[in-house]
Amino acid sequence: MVKVAVMGYGTVGSGVVEVIEKNKDMIQKKAGQEIEVAYILDLREFPGDPYEAKLVHDVNVIMEDPEVKIVCETMGGTGAAYKFTKAALEKGKSVCTSNKEMVAKYGPELIKTAREHACHYLFEASVGGGIPIIRPLNDSLTAEKIESITGILNGTTNYILTKMEREDKSFDVALARAQEKGYAEHNPEADVEGYDARRKIAILASLMMGKHVDSEKIPTEGITKITPADFAYAKAAGRTIKLLARAKAIGENSLEAMVSPVMLDKESPLAMVNFVYNAILVKGNMLGEAMFYGKGAGKLATASAVVSDVIDCTRNLGRKIPCDWDAQEATVEDAGNNVCAYYVRAKKSAKAALLAAFPEGEALELPDRAEDLAYFTKPMAHSAFVSACESLGDTVLGSIRLG
Amino acid sequence: MVKVAVMGYGTVGSGVVEVIEKNKDMIQKKAGQEIEVAYILDLREFPGDPYEAKLVHDVNVIMEDPEVKIVCETMGGTGAAYKFTKAALEKGKSVCTSNKEMVAKYGPELIKTAREHACHYLFEASVGGGIPIIRPLNDSLTAEKIESITGILNGTTNYILTKMEREDKSFDVALARAQEKGYAEHNPEADVEGYDARRKIAILASLMMGKHVDSEKIPTEGITKITPADFAYAKAAGRTIKLLARAKAIGENSLEAMVSPVMLDKESPLAMVNFVYNAILVKGNMLGEAMFYGKGAGKLATASAVVSDVIDCTRNLGRKIPCDWDAQEATVEDAGNNVCAYYVRAKKSAKAALLAAFPEGEALELPDRAEDLAYFTKPMAHSAFVSACESLGDTVLGSIRLG
């Protein structure tokens, strides 16, 4: 029997306990031995909770119990969670986590600490909720040079964009709907500004490069400026708008990376990912494209991914689980050099100026839109695009990358 | 260094050699040591081939070389390939294969033989080409009770159906186009009658159950009877038609399984899988749905999956790689009991009889179709559906399950 401690009895933590309980037989079969939750660490009390007897408030109870081989860190943040994770690993206890902030920031350090103490730091649940993606990258797509990874990694923004597209709603109204449904937080900044997706793509990009990609160096743009007008033009052009997180290897040590809205061709597999679903499209040099799709969040789905890591640890107690993520930092290329075609929405009066600023582009006018038009440029460097837009002044009402 | 032999220098076998050569550095990094192709077994000569020097015609050269630890079986069939696979495993050489026929038929026996000789029988490439699905089922979705697996597992039929839908072509014309493009074989029976998809769903169903599912016991219906009229009604109903391979666990030892065309709601994630792409939708009791998508065939994609198995073997020489697939057979339920709603195309004159035979259903008539109509039944047992259709005689022109 393997004893497990769960640190943080919130949504994911209580889900972990529930999954281990509900699928006990299957988990024992897959792990090769029984897995038991021995302790649940939380500062709060949970009177009447069926697992109340396992609740502890002092992390040392867990650290000092040599029978606890695996710890699930479902606290979040990089404060106490970091200290506890580091301490557990240094005691040779493997840590399985859903904490993307921690993984993005301290991934290589914690992987190294785990290795030095013959245990594991696993984080399948940190990206894409229950969608298997970390293990497929580490264990399945091993014969590939991964060329790029593109994902819809945030369910909240994807829900908002789907609502805007299908019900012709403004961003504010769609956000309010997402908040009512519990898909968006009261303070939605981390989601709608793209910061959540940025952490996740930093994790995936790091695994692609085998080197550390600093999430804070990834240029990031959220969805707050997207309007129903943009969706009207997208629809007319056979496109939709998604918040994409992208990483593309340029060389051994450098990559393009970005989080931004993209006006996607409807034929793209990512265009069909709607509502709270997430998807990750991986391009390999032999494979071509493979996509992993599912609910990117949710208590039990995320918990299931944490428990799959617990099972992996149990199968591999005392062994190595391969994970290429060195501390050496890979360089995120200057976004100004990224080449891309653009959709521009501009005042109708600016049509001639647009044609001059973006030669060979194509204008799209809709009969029910008297004031503005859409313009689709040829591929160009981002810096050149920005300059051209500046020269057009306030006749430009908005722009979105094409993909 | 690990020495590998490739048995069968056809499309996939030559792809394996190419992948190992082209991604040498990455593969060495992932495997932890260099992987070298030592022998290529084929009865044919390949004068001028860059790997001609490695060509052997006698399998014993491979069997008797103790340095060969891993064999890739890319011959196909269950004749010589079976004998060679068995012999290799009995000598403690791991076998990695793309041979779905072999895996579906002899999977549990060969897995057992491998275990008894401390080596591995791996088959990631047998389903979905380069799409990671076998390893995710064995290693990632381990905390789940898998409730069902539904896949578009045959690229040829999916290409034909996509062509029929988009270009209003008949089955025969779309098949001919697929043959011209090299997507369908001269004798297309195994694809269009669903036999290829049946083997693949048998493999996935076996992994879901942990028990053997005999592919020949899976009721199978191909796509030869689908007509442009069916697509016209599907379109009007917000649906499309796909050849689905499905398995659904009923109990510990029994399952529903089937290969058949399904008229799918356009919102289904499988509805958006077009042309030669494949996808596998896995439903777990905690996770909900996850989907794995990509090209289901192709030389390099399939070879990449074989090589990922070679890397897995190399990482796990002398260790166990978990795979639950016992020889004990799971029972495929009588298809007559399967409950499903149906689309029926019938002569317009039969409208009243349809309403009587299938109460509470819904008729759909299209202005440009004078002779027939579509009728959508409520869910009912397959046996009851068949009886009702028989009672309607030749007024029924076709039927497809709804999904």
Note down, in words, how this protein is organized:
Two copies of one chain form a homodimer. The first copy, chain A, has 403 residues and is α/β, with parallel strands linked by helices. Chain A folds into three domains: 2-130 and 299-322, NAD(P)-binding Rossmann-like Domain (Rossmann fold, 3-Layer(aba) Sandwich); 135-295, 2-Layer Sandwich (Dihydrodipicolinate Reductase, domain 2), CATH 3.30.360; 336-402, Alpha-Beta Plaits. Chain A contains 14 helices and 20 strands. In chain A, the strands form four sheets. In chain A, strands 7, 9, 10, 11, 12, 14, 16, 17, 18 and 20 form a ten-stranded mixed sheet that branches. Chain A has a six-stranded parallel sheet with strand order 3-2-1-4-5-6, sandwiched between helices. In chain A, strand 9 (239-249) and strand 10 form a beta hairpin. In chain A, helix 1 (11-22) crosses helix 12 (299-315), helix 4 (80-90) runs parallel beside helix 5 (100-116) and helix 5 runs parallel beside helix 10. At the A-B interface, helix 1, helix 2, helix 6, strand 12 and helix 12 of A face helix 1, helix 2, helix 6, strand 12 and helix 12 of B.
